[in-house]
Design brief:
Elements (H helix, E strand, L loop, with lengths): L1 H23 L4 H18 L6 H15 L3 H4 L1 H23 L9 H23 L1 E3 L2 H8 L3 H17 L1 H27 L3 E3 L4 H20 L20
């Protein structure tokens, strides 16, 4: 009973921390989505249930759209965030398996697979909104993604230390600024690259591209492989002589 109470208390503290983090970061759609999904995972752990990420993503979308239905049409951050997470869950593992030529050192193969999955899932939205996708974007993500946990860690330390001692909080903030500057630099270099895909598809083309992505998901994840059978000539017909 005591262990259950401790788990509930820890989950409650975690949910409050996630809500506070979402408020402190300005309530961006991607942060709110992550906070809702994180809170759901904590609730599932306390209740002894297995957390199912696609269901958590659907609940997060329902909660956010109930609060502001216009997000679906006017907030590109909301659209890109949910498209990227859908891509990760639909294609991330399948792409990682097919990138066997990459080493598994420091999770490089998994990171590359998830980066490719998120890029493909957000490609129609990026092209329809911005009209350009740098081809070096996936390479920039390989640099940015490992730095995200460090930026979040030092940022949280800066907030906690700043509440106790402003000087210590400033030092932690300086440490958090280092990975943030590296992430910004990598994104800026990728944006300046002249090599990219340039087009601005309309709504019908975007719908067609997502329909194609649905077929790709089925081919990679759900469809059974078709065995290749060599051509066999018909059996010779032997006619008995009378």
């Amino acid at each position: 009973a005591c262990a259950a109470v401790r788990r509930r208390a820890a989950a409650a503290v975690g949910i409050i921390a996630l809500a506070g983090f979402a408020v402190l970061t300005g309530g961006e759609a991607s942060v709110v989505r992550a906070a809702v999904m994180g809170g759901l995972s904590l609730v599932a752990a306390v209740c002894g249930r297995r957390y199912f990420a696609p269901a958590g993503l659907a609940v997060a979308a329902a909660v956010m759209l109930a609060a502001d239905p216009l997000l679906l049409r006017h907030d590109i951050g909301f659209q890109l965030s949910f498209a990227a997470i859908c891509g990760l869950h639909c294609f991330g593992e399948a792409f990682s398996r097919r990138l066997g030529f990459l080493p598994e050192t420091a999770g490089l193969r998994r990171t590359a697979g998830e980066t490719l999955a998120a890029t493909i899932a957000t490609l129609p939205l990026i092209l329809s909104t911005f009209g350009f996708l740098p081809l070096v974007g996936p390479l920039a993500n390989l640099v940015v993604l490992p730095l995200v946990p460090w930026a979040m860690l030092f940022g949280a330390l800066a907030l906690a230390a700043g509440a106790i001692n402003p000087a210590i909080g400033l030092a932690a903030a300086w440490l958090a600024d280092l990975p943030l500057r590296a992430m910004t630099g990598a994104a800026s270099l990728a944006a300046l690259s002249p090599f990219g895909l340039t087009m601005r598809p309309g709504p019908a083309a975007v719908a067609f591209l997502y329909a194609w992505l649905g077929l790709l998901w089925y081919a990679l994840v759900r469809a059974e492989p078709i065995p290749i059978r060599w051509f066999r000539p018909p059996l010779d017909i032997v006619i008995d002589e009378v």
